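Q&A FORM
Asked by: J.P.
Topic: structure of Gamma-glutamyltransferase

PROVIDED:
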Amino acid sequence: MQFSVIKAIPVIKCDAMTFDPMTDILKAGGNAVDSAIATLIGIGVVNPQSSGIGGSCLMTIYDASLKKAFSIDARGTAPSASNSTMFIGKSEDAVLGWKASILPGEIHGFWTAFKQFGSGRISWKDIFEPSIKLARRGFPVSKSLALVLKQKEKDIFGDEHMRNHFVNPKTKNLFEEGEIIKRETLANTLELIGNAEDPVKLFYQDGIIAKTIAKEFKENGGIITAEDLANFKAIVDENPLQSSLALNESDLIMCGPPPPSSFGITSAIVGIMAEFYNGKQDDDGTLNDTKVYHRLIEAQKFAYSYRTKFADPDFSKEALEVSQKMMKS
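REPLIED BY: S.T.
REPLY: Here is the structure written out as tokens.
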């Protein structure tokens, strides 16, 4: 069974982004990893409600020269002082506030991917530069960002730092769809990271960002410490999970990270749908067919019922086993 070779590169970007870092990086000689990192940084600028350097990172990379897939796990982990009972009777603390935060893994994951799988023809600084310019220049607030800001209005106005970022100084109201928002503070942070010779040292060890994170968490009752940051590591898996599919008389392979990623869930859903739409039946599975939606809903219900078992294999013996079983479902 062979991995397929993609001869055309699909380029993906967010509608709110007023530039196309993926194409620009590819044209400058970068590879898919370089361009993906640049794009994800840009998405973190324009979609802070769902992405950003305070979050996690999971990547699956196929190295054509080695004919081998790899995965990177930079999923945020819980601080060392956390425990299974800390939110009992304090459910709001689990979703809002300084104790709700996990360790930020994204930058460690990006740096690991860049160093091990980047082209070597694009500098780390060049990857960050387009997003820094975008954050300083400003961009129109998207419909999705405006919606989330409105949903979190009380929390935003209740926090000085959030107000400084997401309240329009001209209107004194939350930024609304279409208004131009600038993210100067984030631009400064991205510039520090992009200019760093060793961003892991800067962000996780004894650099200014690491010290700032640890200091602010301590001052505000959080439990992330300097030691937690220093101990964080992105994990490169040379044997990611694989799932085989027989589709249209071709053997296909899906690859993805082990738990705590949800690749096993995705694999199960695709595998179930492939049993119905594999080129062997007359049913073509067009989106006008209500059976497609019925089958997809049932496949998702089955797969997502296992989601609570997708814990970190370092702490849950059954997590990897459950994921592997689901890929055979």
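FOLLOW-UP: Residues 32-46 form the longest helix (15 residues).
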